[in-house]
Amino acid sequence: MEDGSAGPRMETNSTYNIPLVQRSSRENEMVCIFGTGDFGKALGSKMLQCGYDVVFGSRSPNNANLVPKGSEVLSHHEAAQRSKIIFLAIQRDHYSFLSRLAHALQGKILVDVSNNLKLNQYPESNAEYLAQLVPGAEVVKAFNTVSAWALQSGTLDASRQVFVCGHDSKSKQMVMEIVRTLGLTPLDQGSLMAAKEVENYPLQLFPMWKIPMYISSVLAAVIFLYCVVTEVIYSYVTTGEDYTYAIMIAIPNRVFPIVSLILLALVYLAGIIAAIIQLYRGTKYSRFPDWLDKWMLCRKQLGLVALGYAFLHVIYTLVIPIRYYVRWWMNNWAITQIKNNATAPFDPNYAWRSDAYLAPGILGFFFYVLLGITSLPSVSNIVNWREFRFVQSKLGYLTLILCTGHTLVYGWDRFIYGPFYRWHLPPAFVLSLIIPCAVLSLKFILIAPCVDRIITQIRQGWERNSKNPKKDISENGKTTV
Amino acid sequence: MEDGSAGPRMETNSTYNIPLVQRSSRENEMVCIFGTGDFGKALGSKMLQCGYDVVFGSRSPNNANLVPKGSEVLSHHEAAQRSKIIFLAIQRDHYSFLSRLAHALQGKILVDVSNNLKLNQYPESNAEYLAQLVPGAEVVKAFNTVSAWALQSGTLDASRQVFVCGHDSKSKQMVMEIVRTLGLTPLDQGSLMAAKEVENYPLQLFPMWKIPMYISSVLAAVIFLYCVVTEVIYSYVTTGEDYTYAIMIAIPNRVFPIVSLILLALVYLAGIIAAIIQLYRGTKYSRFPDWLDKWMLCRKQLGLVALGYAFLHVIYTLVIPIRYYVRWWMNNWAITQIKNNATAPFDPNYAWRSDAYLAPGILGFFFYVLLGITSLPSVSNIVNWREFRFVQSKLGYLTLILCTGHTLVYGWDRFIYGPFYRWHLPPAFVLSLIIPCAVLSLKFILIAPCVDRIITQIRQGWERNSKNPKKDISENGKTTV
Amino acid sequence: MEDGSAGPRMETNSTYNIPLVQRSSRENEMVCIFGTGDFGKALGSKMLQCGYDVVFGSRSPNNANLVPKGSEVLSHHEAAQRSKIIFLAIQRDHYSFLSRLAHALQGKILVDVSNNLKLNQYPESNAEYLAQLVPGAEVVKAFNTVSAWALQSGTLDASRQVFVCGHDSKSKQMVMEIVRTLGLTPLDQGSLMAAKEVENYPLQLFPMWKIPMYISSVLAAVIFLYCVVTEVIYSYVTTGEDYTYAIMIAIPNRVFPIVSLILLALVYLAGIIAAIIQLYRGTKYSRFPDWLDKWMLCRKQLGLVALGYAFLHVIYTLVIPIRYYVRWWMNNWAITQIKNNATAPFDPNYAWRSDAYLAPGILGFFFYVLLGITSLPSVSNIVNWREFRFVQSKLGYLTLILCTGHTLVYGWDRFIYGPFYRWHLPPAFVLSLIIPCAVLSLKFILIAPCVDRIITQIRQGWERNSKNPKKDISENGKTTV
């Protein structure tokens, strides 16, 4: 209730305001809904608006005043006989009464719209349980991702997709047709065995983001502590200076770019490890280890988390001149020079250095943002496979090179400059370069002509240890007979 | 003409360049179009490309040279007999001749594609008027959101959605099938009573944005004037200083964050008021007052306007060090110190303060942007209801807390520091904190366990004054029998 | 392999993990796939999951262990007899054997999924070649944009669209139904003549972006050289100063805004030229010259490239105060004043000037970003034609006016101030104003009531030289009978 937002207003208004007083006398398709709770009523109301005739099945058909105008309420038994399709807007706990109706439900399509309160609450999915209860009916799982509120208000922002699964194709087709008529998008999920997953879906909270978020949080925490030790505590111990205010801006602004760079490198490390495994095994036909599969499937999320950190780094950097510390320091610099009567001459070397580290950083961020935009679903939907690969691979590596270069030039002579090695610990940014440099070096080896040729062959189906070497060279994995 | 942009090029090219010289001899579905104007021709041309046979009905069937190659032109009467479906690409003013064709149109599907020049131009919609004129035919409203230019050039960016409505389901299905075949997305809008709204749709100009834009403009104007009075005019009256240049950057940069914060708070105030009303009434089954309904439906737009202002605030803030005034002031600070021989020592307190107000501001903006990205239709389409709630509610409140914190720390001691109260008026940012603090306090009360439990019960269907207390605990509004 | 990203996880998991051990005994639709390579197997596997029965046709039906569990492998001849629809997952080079199967393929639907390695590799498309080989079958082109990897892993980010073309509508409908059942989006591309383009599609690399990228690169290179000559080389020749570090930040930050402004003006110049041509010809019914057609079709891309340059300009500008050169210069300014004992008084004129050029720049960038967001496919899909025109035309011109104003105020007195004309060459920003100012002046003339009236008439179908002046006033190109 605290949230939710208006969808395309067209729909909003039409489903919200148009009274359905006058019904045409023509014969419409009849649908039956068991259950007159919130969801049943919302679904019935929406269906009436979309031209269906609706009959409700209820334990107590007499509180008919509650159902949407234009629909009927009958007993379960009578209602079932009126329609080929029956929506069960009831909770799993109450399914048991359906076994008594088995005869009336023979040959019907039962649409299970139920949800659970917890992931994997029951051993089998609600829909499979229903199929066992009423073996004579076809069970189709659908609509569980749509909320009553969304149906009523027409604000379907978060739930336009309706996952549909079931054993019988024809039944699924009929349900998917209804989904389309209601203005929603059906997505066929296969047989009823997918029902468990379909039921778990609305209970999930960004499952693909968990690993990337976890990795980035741990990384950020470790680097934050490292920086606090080598900067704040070191300053305090050695000179007694109070540098604690650095934990607000200065240290986060070290942590963010480091995490971002490492995550970006991890995105590409997965592909490199996959290529090395394929090279080593000499075939593409054996499966990758599970951890690598998972890693490869969450690369998009890893990359977007990396972009988030990069975004923060950019803003934290741009506010630098507004900070009191920096203003005071600039001011102090001028005053000190005056007092010592020693003006610092302009050093073009320093000008080169400061500009040369900023430029690749900005360009890197630009391509980073471009990568982010192309991973928006609506953008990635209209590019073809070759374009998608070009953006994600070519532009991705360009981004990695620019960001690594940015960090290297930022380092400049600090890599070897003693005072930066406090307590013999290297500055954090030095550590951040390890993975990116390794990724870029390995990639450099992998694209060497002699290695690249072998990988290309393997990806086209060639197998090193195969007796009958089949070869199916083709762009897209299309293959020979 | 001045604008428009290329859609997915695939389509662009295919509809634009491929000549349709050779038609297959097989029987295609035949469609009839009345009217050989721009829209009729564009529609016919597109249909030919998608495999339909097209016949035009015209008053003067002899200027056949104008219609797309591959189609025929006949008199209205003859053309009508060739096809089950007839598209009326004619203006409402000319519909009257159709009543003479009533016999030929008996049992046909008439697709009304017409638009009007003004909102609510006629008492009844064009489609309903048509249905009265030709009672023997099934009228379906469709295609009015698509322009001739878009059909011809294939640049359908702004109009891929086709709203379809009509009394007869079968007729609608047939029209929707054609819509899909043309590569467009049909959206069923219910019975012909929705036609008025469908006809008004292409004449609307961001109706959901009107209230948020109005509120934000009024707020911005009022705060701008307030700042001009307390800063520019006050300076001039008391010290004679010319501070007018502040109206370009300095004062807008006070107005933007204030408007942004207030709008963001208003987004969440709606939900809080709704919760209080439900608590007071003890039920969720009575409708909210109309103003609250409207408010809740435009929260997304309110939030996005707030994000716009926040974006402007960020850039206005980041240019601060580039401004001449600020550079001069920095410079003057150093010179004054030298002249007075009194160097300001470094004050860690000030460093804390300046960093502590910047950090939550940056983080707040980061989450603000995240909220904005998730409200993009293609992103919100792939998150489930729970995830959408998480982002919009949890992250939304986090953003509000961070931005309110940012403003509070910015204020620091200025809340009580006399000189900032010019003419006894508090600085504008003090006023901006009223609504956010109220929202956060009320939210804090509402999530207190004892209150939260009651709200949860109410939202699950419990009613305080109900005699037969029904209870339908379920995640998604699914309910008991 | 190096890239790709996880699609909606729902699908990912369900297609990835769910074993298909138990098949229902009911009769499912049977599909046949010729070819047991990567693509054939991936397609078969996906179809099994979506409820189809799959039979593979193979030269050597005995290596049945390779095909997905639940499917059969037969000889081509036997397999063909089992299904109405046959997918050819084989390369064009191997099509020849199909002519021997002509009898078995009589009346079947052959789905050509093949791709080529190069654009226009063969004189006719693979699908048309197939239609010639097997004249008794209906050939439908489809699925060539989908990769085996995407089908297997369910990560369909880059390839949810399936282009379908073919001569026979019924066959296309059947194939499109399968596409929908697999959770993909079919897009009807018309007759088999579109096959060539459909086959070229996955080999294209951003064809609509080529011209805008080319124009912007040439412009950027020319302006960069111009700036290097008038600033770096001029400084070196006249004063011997080493100003080379400017090529990292300072000069790019002149190039980016200039390119951005010119590109933005070019977006609107196309529409203005179109209007002038229509005015001159007195009709809208003659086609524009080809170059203008192409220009108008790539305006969106031009505008987005312009936005990219504007984005870079903004960040390059915001880092200014961080640069060593700027810090040194600020510092030096203070020291010089002290030494000369001549403090610069505050000049409100300068404050006005610096603020007055920043403000329209920021606002211009804000509207620029807004334009970019509304051109995201998912956003432009939910606005109607009038709203799209409003944003792209009204807001677009507002952006152009703000950005031109930003540049004019930036120039201020430098337009006439001698020292800026090095070697008698005007500063680059002066040149950048030519096209924008021309566009705005012409637009100003075109919206003058007397001119605007004629253009409106022409766009409503009026022709100056027409003998029978027909008039079809309507908002959307809908027209008279």
UniProtKB/TrEMBL annotation, chains A, B, C:
GO cellular component, one term: endosome membrane
Compartment(s): Endosome membrane
Primary localisation category: membrane
Domain Ferric oxidoreductase per the UniProt entry, residue ranges: 258-403
Catalysis performed (reactions): 2 Fe(2+) + NADP(+) + H(+) = 2 Fe(3+) + NADPH; 2 Cu(+) + NADP(+) + H(+) = 2 Cu(2+) + NADPH
InterPro entries: Fe3_Rdtase_TM_dom, NAD(P)-bd_dom_sf, P5C_Rdtase_cat_N, STEAP_metalloreductase
Entry keyword annotation includes Ion transport: yes
Membrane topology field: Multi-pass membrane protein
TM stretches of this protein: 213-236, 256-280, 301-326, 357-383, 395-412, 428-451
Domain (Pyrroline-5-carboxylate reductase catalytic N-terminal): residue spans on this chain: 31-116
A biological-process GO annotation: copper ion import
GO molecular function, one term: ferric-chelate reductase (NADPH) activity
Presence of the UniProt keyword Manganese in the record: no
Keywords of this entry: Copper, Endosome, FAD, Flavoprotein, Ion transport, Iron, Iron transport, Membrane, Metal-binding, Oxidoreductase, Transmembrane, Transmembrane helix, Transport
Cofactor: heme b; FAD
Family, per entry: Belongs to the STEAP family.
Name used for this protein in its record: Metalloreductase STEAP4
Naturally occurring in which organism (per UniProt): Pleurodeles waltl (Iberian ribbed newt)
Lineage of the organism: Eukaryota, Metazoa, Chordata, Craniata, Vertebrata
